[in-house]
Amino acid sequence: MTGIARKNFDSADETRPFEDGKGKLDLVNSDRGPVGRAVFEPGWQWSKHVKPIAGTDSCQADHVGYVVSGRMKIVMDDGASEEVGPGDFFTVTPGHDAWVVGDEPCVALDWNGFGGYAVPTGS
Q1: What's the predicted TM-score (pTM) here?
Q2: Which of 16, 87, 122, 123 would bridge with 25, disulfide CB 3.0–4.6 Å?
Q3: Is residue 116 situated within a structural domain?
C-alpha cells in the first residue's frame, strides 16, 4: 500500500440520485472509509427527496461535514435548528430533517454520514 491515495468525485466509485432529480451523492471509497460529496438542488428536502429512499421518519445519518457552497437548514427531531453555509464545518447527530435555503444548490462534503446515505431500503 502506498502512502498517497487520490480519487476524484467526478469519477466517483458510486453515485446515488435523490428523488425527483433534486440532486445526487457522489461517493469515493478509501481505506479509511467512504467520503461523500452531495449536491442538493434548490427545493431539495430530506423528508421529500431521501425519506422515500431511506424508509425512516427522519435522517438517521451521523454527519461530519463541510459546506462548499449554498445554504442548508437543519432541524433536529427535538426542534433545535441551525443554518449552515459556505465554509462551515458541521456535525449533526441522527434524527433530523434538512432542506436547501435559497435558489443555489448546496454542495457539501461528509466524512462520516454518507456511506449508508440514500441507500434504498432493503439494499
Answers
A1: 0.92
A2: 16
A3: no
Instruction: Return d(Cα 96, Cα 103) in angstroms, integer.
Output: 22
Q: Of 99, 67, 63, 96, give the one whose Cα is nearest residue 80.
A: 96
Residues composing the chain: 123
Distance CA 61, CA 102 (A): 24
* Mean local confidence (pLDDT), 37-45: 97
CATH of the domain at 63: 2.60.120.10
Cα angle for residues 25, 26, 29 (degrees, 5° grid): 125
Where do we find the cell 468525485? 9
- The pLDDT tens digits of the residues spanning 2-11 come to 689 999 999 9
Range of the domain at 49: 13-110
